[in-house]
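pinging the channel bc i need a second pair of eyes. not urgent but kinda urgent?? the chain im working w is below, pasted from the shared doc
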Amino acid sequence: ISASGYLIAGDDVNTLTVSGSTFKENGGLYGAGIFVAGSDFTVSDCVFDKNTAFGKGNMTPNNNNGAAIVVTDTGKDITGAITGSNFTNNKAQYGGAIDICEGNIAISDSLFVNNSADVEGGAIDIDSAINNPVVTVENSKFVNNTPQAIHNSKELHLGIETFTDLQNAIDLVDGILTLDSDIAMTDDEAAGFVNGVAINKNIRIDGKGHTISAEDLGRIFSIGEGFTVTLTNATLINGKAD
């Protein structure tokens, strides 16, 4: 499907379901592929390629969000699922592929490649001035999304259990990283994390009361010079420095 402007508007309907479809080279102010406003939705086995959320002339702010999918602010407690879908070469100001402002949204088994945002969230932007979206991402791959794969200022769950998971999550996410469970370094990871998980960006990590243990196998974190890392609600144990 190719057109100008968003193609499918889930506006206060019971459930929006889209499957096995391709959205290519569509343009609009936001949500050039799918615009969800207060509806439960499911998107499965779809392709979103070269969609663009373009500007409103010289109006400020432009807020050109989510070239492929926008889940906009309505103040409703919706649920959404995005599964088995590919997002490639999409571009917006915020959330190059997906912009999420509300609901409990699960993203799984999906691929995000070469998506870009002018400001934040090359693949996914999670933000809202009035709502508190909760987003879970599982079994999905992110490649060459700029300026970063995911920007989160609300609640994001990535299923982090090991130091490798934690390193991958820090590399993917800008803003706030939320821990879902206790994290422990494994014997197999020890050689790669002698100096701990490397942090070379400004980031906030909310431990949600969980423990990060190096199991006496290495350091826990190695923070690059000049970066600000804020760690809250976490217990760090069993770190070892040579």
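so Confidence is low (pLDDT under 50) at residues 1-5, 57-61. and The first strand starts at residue 8 and ends at 11. — does that match what u expected or am i reading it wrong
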